């Protein structure tokens, strides 16, 4: 049993590549000459204008792997910064300071690799080191990176981090890149939009999952273990309550197939049933900022055998575990990525026993499979994406 809720990194890649393929308009100059480019394509990290200076700090060179060592991106009168660099070894992080921005400012970053085979990945952070946007691939066939995002909250500093994809193939873990950054000021901040989450206990066929067409049987506690025989209805209620508790601060309404919504209602659906030897659950994608209100995930409830836990859980404990993993997959459908903290719902590498604890949407270090830098503040992002109850 793999405790990671994703089967493999390759499968996870499938979950993350399908985002934002066509939204970038031309930006930046894209014409700056690569300096220092030898036959190996080695490029000094920094502004493509190697005469650029800033009173805020250095404008080129390593070390630049931390927020405090960031290279200052120098913007021209058109609010464009043209950057270039090299991921010199796998895990080389190149961090650039983009400066202060206000809610409503739009950041567009087109990162390309015209002179290398680098599979690049980028992330955007605020002044508190909290990630606000992540992109690995432009599309399933274009492994360059794209950011187009409107700032939700004023921040004294935003940072761009560029590194190799954790999924980079052989020979694609290093190389040169160019990043063109464009700021458009004074747009409208997108409003938070409430989401309805439907837990489907009734079974069905899901067609758009990363797994391809998959038929999920109806939820049945007997299929988890004889120990829970005859308690299907009680377990369903406890699971729903656990998921609802995890989202209780946020505008996520948790309903089930036992009280289905009116036809035509937009819902994200979590299918609950069946078994997988390799995972507890899977989501259509990491749907950044919840662009799709009608995406799906699966929880393989029959994978929650008592064998996966150190001690056989009570019915309530089992419901808490399934509820935490359900909230995790729902988190992906709302735009959350993985973190590394057993207390976090979005953790990706805890043993199953951690699911029995009171996991929450918290601020925690980003998973090293995404970037060994900064944190993801799940509560802040959910507030910006779906809103807080009563606000
Ligand atoms: Ca570098
Ligand atoms: Ca670096
Ligand atoms: Ca990539
Ligand atoms: Ca979604
Ligand atoms: Zn996950």
- Please, what is the average pLDDT? 90
Q: What is the rounded Rg? A: 22 Å
What would CATH call the homologous superfamily of the largest domain?
Collagenase (Catalytic Domain)
- Please state the oligomeric state of the protein chains shown: single chain
**Count of distinct structural domains:** 2
Give an overview of the whole structure:
- With 391 residues, the protein is α+β, with helices and mostly antiparallel strands.
- It has 2 domains: 159 residues, Jelly Rolls (Sandwich); 195 residues, Collagenase (Catalytic Domain) (3-Layer(aba) Sandwich).
- It is 13% helix and 25% strand.
- The chain is built from 4 helices and 19 strands.
- It has a 5-stranded antiparallel β-sheet with strand order 1-3-10-5-8, with no helix packed on it. Strands 2-4-9-6-7 form a 5-stranded mixed β-sheet, with no helix packed on it.
- Strand 12 and strand 13 form a beta hairpin.
- Helix 2 crosses helix 3.
- The longest helix has 20 residues.
- It is elongated and about 75 Å long.
- It starts with 8 loop residues before the first helix and ends in a 6-residue tail after the last helix.
- The N terminus is likely disordered.
- Bound molecules: calcium ion (4 copies) and zinc ion.
- One calcium ion binds next to strand 3.
- The site of one calcium ion (CA) has 8 residues, from strand 3.
